[in-house]
Amino acid sequence: MNSTITVLGIFILLMGSVTMLILAFAKPKEKDDINIRLEKLKNQQPIIKGETNKKPDKLQTEINQLLRTVAPLAKRMLSPKAADTLNVKLLRAGKYETNPLNFTAYRIISAVVFPIIFLTLGYMAFDMGLQEIILAFIVLTVLGYFFPIVRLNRQIQDRHKSIFRALPDILDLLTICLEAGMGINEALNKVVEKSRISELRDEIERTLREIQLGNPRLQALRDMAKRIDLKELSSVVISIVQAEQMGTSLAKTLKIQSEIIRDIRWQKAQELAQKAPIKIIIPIAIFIFPTIFIIIFGPLVIGFITNNP
């Protein structure tokens, strides 16, 4: 009983020391607070439609306050090169409201919260020694720090898949609008109005707002392709730019691009179908074959054992 209380006391003191250390380094000074606000205003992205009517809830307010508290420490850890790389990833994931500084602060908070939660649950469920607690604390801190990056990369992949699936239908609708005699801006507005909600639709809507704010149409389309960084979408944007500059039929160009992307999507589906039998071998060998062997040979083994003393 005494050893358990001692280990628990050491664990609480260790967590308290780490928390106090972070808060000590992250204590914002008045000058730092001004710089953080200026950086936030500089990195602020255009407001998405409907965001002005949203009221921040209490939980989000507390999270933002915590991020501001940890921001000075995150600023010391974030190099300019890492900030540029992280900013590109945030744009690809569609997180326009998040800047690299806040994301790094979120990683630091995750590195503290991960070991606290899991070690608390593990101590309640298992009898862990001091060495096990220290080892688990180090491992969970590293996992907590890198988990947001892994999750961000996964969000980028899912977003690319969503945009790739929606691209042919969007191009078909855009082609129909152009063949009906609409201009490119009017056709894009009609696509946003009539198409189903998707990541690509939101990006087109953002691009239209940039055009309305004075950004040239071709440059706004290039910026959209650069933000998303999807090969098929970049090919479509390049075709639109070339058709605009050379004066060729934009509707025919988009129709050809739609057919090409559908062929690519069909080829990728065939590749996944061919990989499926290979991927299913491992679960079959682990879960199904042993069960079959037990059912077939189990009675024979039991009979052999019972008949031979």
Account of the protein in words:
- The chain has 309 residues and is mostly helical.
- It has 2 domains: 158 residues, no CATH class; 116 residues, Up-down Bundle (Receptor-associated Protein).
- Helix content is 83%, strand content 0%.
- The protein has 12 helices and no strands.
- About 9% of the residues have low confidence.
Keywords:
flat, Receptor-associated Protein, mainly alpha, 309 residues
Q: What is shown here, in short?
A:
The protein has twelve helices and no strands. It has helices at 2-25, 30-42, 58-77, 80-92, 100-125, 130-179, 184-194, 199-212, 217-228, 231-246, 250-279, 281-307.
Strand and helix layout:
Layout: H1 2-25, H2 30-42, H3 58-77, H4 80-92, H5 100-125, H6 130-179, H7 184-194, H8 199-212, H9 217-228, H10 231-246, H11 250-279, H12 281-307
Helix pairs in contact: 3-5, 5-6, 6-7, 6-11, 7-8, 8-9, 9-10, 10-11
Poorly predicted spans: 23-34, 40-54
Question: What separation lies between the terminal Cα atoms?
Answer: 48 Å
Please outline the major beta sheet: none
- Rounded mean pLDDT is 80
Q: Output the helix-strand order.
A: HHHHHHHHHHHH
- Which secondary-structure class do the elements indicate? mainly alpha
DSSP summary, beta strand count: 0
Tally the helices: 12
Provide the gyration radius in Å: 28 Å
Fraction in helix: over 70%
**In what range is the share of β-strand residues?**
under 5%
Tell the overall outline: flat
| Overall number of structural domains | 2
